[in-house]
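Async update (no meeting this week)

Hi team, since we skipped the sync, here's where things stand on the single-chain job. The sequence we agreed to prioritize is pasted below, unchanged from the tracker. I ran it this morning and attached the output directly underneath so nobody has to dig for it. Comments welcome in thread, and please keep replies under the output.
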Amino acid sequence: MSRPSKFPSKAPAILIALTAIGGGLLLSGPVLAQAQQQPKSQTWFKVCSKQGENNICNVQYSIAADNGQLVTAVNLLTVTGKIKRRIFQIAVPSGRYIPAGVTVKIDKNKANKLPYAICLPSRCLAEIPMSNGLIKALKRGKQLTLTSVNFQNKKSPIKVSLNGFSAAYDGPPLKRTELQDRQKKLQEELQKKAEAARKKLEEAQKKAKE
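Output:
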Protein backbone atom coordinates (compact mmCIF):
# COMPACT_ATOMS: atom_id res chain seq x y z
CA MET A 1 0.00 0.00 0.00
CA SER A 2 1.40 3.39 -0.91
CA ARG A 3 2.31 5.90 1.74
CA PRO A 4 -0.19 8.66 2.55
CA SER A 5 0.48 11.87 0.65
CA LYS A 6 -0.73 15.41 1.12
CA PHE A 7 -3.40 16.74 -1.20
CA PRO A 8 -3.42 20.24 -2.69
CA SER A 9 -5.38 23.00 -1.02
CA LYS A 10 -8.39 22.39 -3.29
CA ALA A 11 -8.61 18.74 -2.18
CA PRO A 12 -11.65 19.12 0.14
CA ALA A 13 -13.77 20.66 -2.64
CA ILE A 14 -12.71 17.97 -5.09
CA LEU A 15 -13.25 15.29 -2.48
CA ILE A 16 -16.82 16.40 -1.80
CA ALA A 17 -17.54 16.36 -5.53
CA LEU A 18 -16.03 12.89 -5.87
CA THR A 19 -17.98 11.63 -2.91
CA ALA A 20 -21.26 12.85 -4.41
CA ILE A 21 -21.62 9.65 -6.40
CA GLY A 22 -21.03 7.50 -3.33
CA GLY A 23 -22.66 9.78 -0.82
CA GLY A 24 -26.13 9.03 -2.10
CA LEU A 25 -25.45 5.33 -1.80
CA LEU A 26 -24.19 5.48 1.75
CA LEU A 27 -27.11 5.44 4.12
CA SER A 28 -27.91 8.90 5.44
CA GLY A 29 -29.05 10.09 8.83
CA PRO A 30 -27.27 10.95 12.10
CA VAL A 31 -24.15 8.85 12.46
CA LEU A 32 -23.41 6.79 15.53
CA ALA A 33 -20.55 7.99 17.71
CA GLN A 34 -20.16 4.35 18.63
CA ALA A 35 -21.64 1.54 16.55
CA GLN A 36 -23.56 -0.30 19.25
CA GLN A 37 -26.14 -1.89 16.99
CA GLN A 38 -25.44 -5.10 15.12
CA PRO A 39 -23.84 -4.04 11.83
CA LYS A 40 -25.43 -5.01 8.54
CA SER A 41 -23.04 -5.89 5.75
CA GLN A 42 -23.60 -5.36 2.06
CA THR A 43 -21.62 -6.70 -0.87
CA TRP A 44 -19.06 -5.07 -3.13
CA PHE A 45 -20.58 -3.27 -6.11
CA LYS A 46 -19.68 -0.64 -8.68
CA VAL A 47 -21.59 2.47 -9.69
CA CYS A 48 -20.59 4.98 -12.37
CA SER A 49 -21.86 8.48 -13.08
CA LYS A 50 -21.00 11.49 -15.20
CA GLN A 51 -20.26 14.63 -13.19
CA GLY A 52 -19.80 17.58 -15.53
CA GLU A 53 -16.75 16.88 -17.69
CA ASN A 54 -15.70 13.89 -15.61
CA ASN A 55 -16.69 10.25 -15.38
CA ILE A 56 -16.60 8.83 -11.86
CA CYS A 57 -16.74 5.15 -10.96
CA ASN A 58 -16.93 3.99 -7.36
CA VAL A 59 -16.33 0.42 -6.23
CA GLN A 60 -17.75 0.38 -2.73
CA TYR A 61 -18.71 -1.65 0.29
CA SER A 62 -20.69 -0.20 3.16
CA ILE A 63 -21.70 -1.42 6.59
CA ALA A 64 -24.67 0.08 8.39
CA ALA A 65 -26.37 -0.55 11.70
CA ASP A 66 -29.94 -1.92 11.72
CA ASN A 67 -31.27 1.63 11.93
CA GLY A 68 -29.46 2.61 8.74
CA GLN A 69 -26.70 4.61 10.38
CA LEU A 70 -23.21 4.40 8.89
CA VAL A 71 -20.68 2.14 10.58
CA THR A 72 -17.96 2.04 7.91
CA ALA A 73 -17.71 2.38 4.14
CA VAL A 74 -14.91 1.69 1.68
CA ASN A 75 -14.76 3.62 -1.62
CA LEU A 76 -12.38 3.07 -4.53
CA LEU A 77 -12.94 6.13 -6.71
CA THR A 78 -11.66 6.40 -10.27
CA VAL A 79 -12.08 9.73 -12.05
CA THR A 80 -11.42 10.17 -15.77
CA GLY A 81 -11.95 13.14 -18.03
CA LYS A 82 -10.83 16.67 -17.21
CA ILE A 83 -9.72 15.43 -13.78
CA LYS A 84 -7.80 12.18 -13.53
CA ARG A 85 -7.56 10.74 -10.04
CA ARG A 86 -7.75 7.42 -8.25
CA ILE A 87 -8.57 7.49 -4.56
CA PHE A 88 -8.86 4.83 -1.89
CA GLN A 89 -11.20 6.24 0.74
CA ILE A 90 -12.60 5.08 4.09
CA ALA A 91 -15.70 6.69 5.62
CA VAL A 92 -16.28 6.34 9.37
CA PRO A 93 -18.67 7.99 11.83
CA SER A 94 -17.91 11.50 13.03
CA GLY A 95 -16.55 12.02 16.53
CA ARG A 96 -13.19 10.48 15.62
CA TYR A 97 -9.74 11.21 17.08
CA ILE A 98 -8.22 12.90 14.03
CA PRO A 99 -4.46 12.35 14.60
CA ALA A 100 -4.99 8.56 14.74
CA GLY A 101 -6.39 8.37 11.21
CA VAL A 102 -7.77 5.02 10.03
CA THR A 103 -5.50 1.98 9.97
CA VAL A 104 -6.03 -0.51 7.15
CA LYS A 105 -4.83 -4.10 7.34
CA ILE A 106 -5.23 -6.73 4.60
CA ASP A 107 -5.33 -10.21 6.14
CA LYS A 108 -2.24 -10.52 8.38
CA ASN A 109 -0.10 -8.02 6.49
CA LYS A 110 1.32 -4.85 7.99
CA ALA A 111 -1.25 -2.21 8.90
CA ASN A 112 -1.10 1.14 7.07
CA LYS A 113 -2.44 4.48 8.25
CA LEU A 114 -4.79 6.61 6.17
CA PRO A 115 -4.91 10.29 7.26
CA TYR A 116 -8.25 12.07 7.47
CA ALA A 117 -8.82 14.43 4.55
CA ILE A 118 -12.02 16.03 5.86
CA CYS A 119 -14.71 15.59 8.51
CA LEU A 120 -18.33 16.37 7.66
CA PRO A 121 -21.21 16.51 10.17
CA SER A 122 -22.20 12.95 9.30
CA ARG A 123 -18.84 11.26 8.67
CA CYS A 124 -15.07 11.57 8.51
CA LEU A 125 -13.21 10.62 5.35
CA ALA A 126 -9.67 9.20 5.30
CA GLU A 127 -7.92 8.61 2.00
CA ILE A 128 -4.75 7.97 0.03
CA PRO A 129 -3.99 7.80 -3.70
CA MET A 130 -5.01 4.39 -5.05
CA SER A 131 -2.06 2.44 -6.46
CA ASN A 132 -1.98 -0.65 -8.65
CA GLY A 133 -0.21 -2.44 -5.80
CA LEU A 134 -3.09 -1.74 -3.45
CA ILE A 135 -5.65 -3.02 -5.95
CA LYS A 136 -3.65 -6.24 -6.45
CA ALA A 137 -3.39 -6.71 -2.69
CA LEU A 138 -7.14 -6.29 -2.29
CA LYS A 139 -7.81 -8.79 -5.07
CA ARG A 140 -5.50 -11.36 -3.42
CA GLY A 141 -6.79 -10.71 0.10
CA LYS A 142 -9.65 -12.24 2.03
CA GLN A 143 -10.38 -9.61 4.66
CA LEU A 144 -9.84 -5.94 5.45
CA THR A 145 -9.54 -4.75 9.04
CA LEU A 146 -10.34 -1.05 9.39
CA THR A 147 -9.64 0.59 12.73
CA SER A 148 -10.54 4.14 13.76
CA VAL A 149 -10.34 5.75 17.21
CA ASN A 150 -13.33 7.59 18.65
CA PHE A 151 -13.36 10.71 20.81
CA GLN A 152 -13.13 8.53 23.94
CA ASN A 153 -9.82 7.15 22.63
CA LYS A 154 -11.37 3.72 22.03
CA LYS A 155 -10.42 1.72 18.96
CA SER A 156 -13.24 0.53 16.72
CA PRO A 157 -11.99 -2.31 14.48
CA ILE A 158 -14.35 -3.31 11.66
CA LYS A 159 -13.94 -6.42 9.49
CA VAL A 160 -14.75 -6.16 5.78
CA SER A 161 -14.86 -9.25 3.59
CA LEU A 162 -13.02 -9.02 0.27
CA ASN A 163 -15.16 -11.76 -1.22
CA GLY A 164 -16.59 -10.40 -4.45
CA PHE A 165 -14.19 -7.46 -4.67
CA SER A 166 -12.44 -8.59 -7.86
CA ALA A 167 -15.73 -9.26 -9.65
CA ALA A 168 -17.05 -5.82 -8.71
CA TYR A 169 -13.83 -4.00 -9.61
CA ASP A 170 -13.33 -5.68 -12.98
CA GLY A 171 -17.00 -6.12 -13.86
CA PRO A 172 -19.61 -3.72 -15.25
CA PRO A 173 -21.29 -1.12 -13.01
CA LEU A 174 -24.80 -1.59 -11.71
CA LYS A 175 -27.57 -0.27 -13.91
CA ARG A 176 -29.74 2.47 -12.45
CA THR A 177 -32.70 0.09 -12.10
CA GLU A 178 -30.50 -2.47 -10.31
CA LEU A 179 -29.25 0.19 -7.93
CA GLN A 180 -32.78 1.43 -7.21
CA ASP A 181 -33.97 -2.13 -6.51
CA ARG A 182 -31.00 -2.68 -4.23
CA GLN A 183 -31.71 0.48 -2.24
CA LYS A 184 -35.44 -0.32 -2.05
CA LYS A 185 -34.85 -3.82 -0.68
CA LEU A 186 -32.33 -2.53 1.85
CA GLN A 187 -34.69 0.21 3.00
CA GLU A 188 -37.55 -2.26 3.40
CA GLU A 189 -35.36 -4.57 5.46
CA LEU A 190 -34.24 -1.71 7.69
CA GLN A 191 -37.85 -0.59 8.20
CA LYS A 192 -38.86 -4.12 9.25
CA LYS A 193 -36.01 -4.30 11.76
CA ALA A 194 -36.82 -0.83 13.09
CA GLU A 195 -40.47 -1.83 13.58
CA ALA A 196 -39.43 -5.04 15.36
CA ALA A 197 -37.12 -3.06 17.65
CA ARG A 198 -39.92 -0.55 18.39
CA LYS A 199 -42.35 -3.33 19.35
CA LYS A 200 -39.74 -4.98 21.53
CA LEU A 201 -39.14 -1.70 23.35
CA GLU A 202 -42.88 -1.13 23.85
CA GLU A 203 -43.27 -4.64 25.29
CA ALA A 204 -40.36 -4.05 27.67
CA GLN A 205 -41.84 -0.72 28.81
CA LYS A 206 -45.25 -2.37 29.34
CA LYS A 207 -43.72 -5.14 31.48
CA ALA A 208 -41.80 -2.55 33.49
CA LYS A 209 -45.03 -0.67 34.27
CA GLU A 210 -46.78 -3.87 35.32
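Quick observations from my side:
The chain has two domains: 11-174, 175-210.
The two ends are 59 Å apart (CA to CA).
Reply here if anything looks off.
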